[in-house]
Write a structure and sequence with these properties.
single chain, 405 residues, alpha/beta, Rossmann fold, eight-stranded mixed sheet, 13 helices, 44% helix
């Protein structure tokens, strides 16, 4: 019987169910077993349920359920549906069928794949590490963080590369590690990858050990106070929807993100502006002198960031700081060389800068077609290559791992 998905809450519950199935499948494949038939059928049923969601004007219509005011959200589900389609091709028909599908999806796929493999020919990653951003780099971009569940094929390709080609593979994201973060979205089994959240400020390593970079106690108390107030605010019926759109509410280690809008404009502009001002008032109430937090309003999200002392002023913690912490904490030994850093935005360039400061043999592959960003990446690391899609990058990893097994 076809599962009926009508509310945003039911939609997120279904995506969580796909996480469980995908994780089991990846574990089977990495143990050398064939995909489970029943789990393939479950994923197919989940895909049918998503496709059956009513549409209006080309977008999927989901009601806001118990949330005060009712109403509906109109969403595109390209990521959720597209990744399930890819998984079913991979699990039922095999790797070659998936690569043929990716070639049809992405212009120049085969040429880009061959060029990137050629670029990597002189690299010796077995003596070094992979450090990569997640969303937009090794994971296709999704408009809602809570439903950006990793695909089975993606996890298998990354795990193969981690097992056969590098000493450590680190997925470093600005997202939180837990509480709707990397742990809940990653279907790679434990033991294959280091998951580093909050720009590298917290981690879960291959041996399931957790760690975090200490925050100054007064700042932590202020952030805890702010997070409690935000959590209480978004439990109120009139504001509950903001936790379910876009980035939602993310309690990171040393930073908090709260959505005020999504890429579909689901919230009326005036309501979004009022909510943003409410959040900024709350920040000013808790930190009136602006010495603890810096806030940034992107129009979609409000980022609330703990500052770091920097000479006579303050600055943000960036992914370069995260790499330096992880290198020391996890004994990555980036100084041994052969390291590969991957990203897709300017916020990932500090990773290159930090790695370059201690690595004699640094390489980078970025997922970008932006000429300005490409120039900045090349300036930070002369050994730079570019691809247009995360699917191409993870397919490169898989090809290198297959050749190196």
């Amino acid at each position: 019987m076809l599962q009926e998905i009508r509310t945003i809450q039911q939609f997120y519950a279904l995506m969580k169910a796909t996480w469980k199935v995908r994780r089991r499948q990846v574990a089977r494949i990495m143990r050398g077993k064939s995909p489970g038939i029943q789990d393939c059928e479950r994923l197919a049923a989940h895909l049918d349920a998503l496709r059956a969601i009513p549409r209006r004007d080309g977008r999927f219509e989901l009601t806001t359920g118990r949330i005060a005011g009712g109403g509906a959200l109109y969403l595109e589900l390209d990521y959720e549906i597209g990744e399930l389609q890819k998984d079913l091709i991979f699990l039922r028909q095999g790797e070659e069928a998936l690569l043929a599908h990716l070639q049809r999806l992405h212009s120049g796929f085969q040429d880009q794949l061959a060029a990137a493999i050629h670029f990597c020919a002189g690299m010796q990653p077995e003596s070094g590490c992979l450090i990569s951003d997640r969303d937009g780099t090794v994971n296709n971009y999704c408009g809602r963080y809570l439903s950006s569940v990793q695909s089975s094929y993606n996890a298998v390709f990354l795990c193969r590369f981690a097992a056969r080609m590098v000493r450590h593979a680190v997925i470093l994201s600005s997202a939180p590690l837990s509480g709707g973060g990397l742990e809940e979205l990653t279907v790679s089994p434990a033991g294959w990858l280091v998951l580093a959240g909050s720009k590298g400020r917290e981690y879960l390593d291959e041996k399931a050990r957790r760690g975090a970079l200490a925050i100054e106690p007064q700042q932590q108390r202020q952030l805890d106070r702010l997070n409690r107030r935000l959590a209480g605010l978004l439990q109120q019926p009139r504001y509950e929807l903001f936790a379910l759109i876009g980035s939602g509410l993310q309690f990171k280690f040393g930073q908090t993100t709260v959505a005020r809008q999504d890429i579909y404009g689901s919230i009326p502009a005036e309501e979004s502006e009022r909510f943003a001002e409410l959040i900024l008032d709350l920040i000013r109430e808790i930190d009136p002198d602006g010495r603890c937090f810096r806030s940034e309003d992107t129009g979609k999200d409000i980022e609330i960031i703990l500052t770091l002392p920097d000479g006579s002023g303050f600055r943000d913690f960036d992914k370069g700081d995260g790499i330096r912490f992880l290198d020391s904490e996890l004994s990555l030994h980036l100084d041994r060389g052969g390291n590969l850093v991957c990203g897709d935005t300017a916020s990932d360039i500090p990773m290159i800068t930090a790695a370059a400061a201690c690595s004699p043999d640094l390489w980078t592959i970025f997922v970008s077609e932006d000429a300005v960003l490409k120039e900045a990446v090349r300036h930070a690391c002369p050994r730079a290559h570019f691809v247009s899609q995360p699917d191409i990058l993870v397919s490169v990893f898989n090809a290198l791992a297959q050749d190196g097994k």
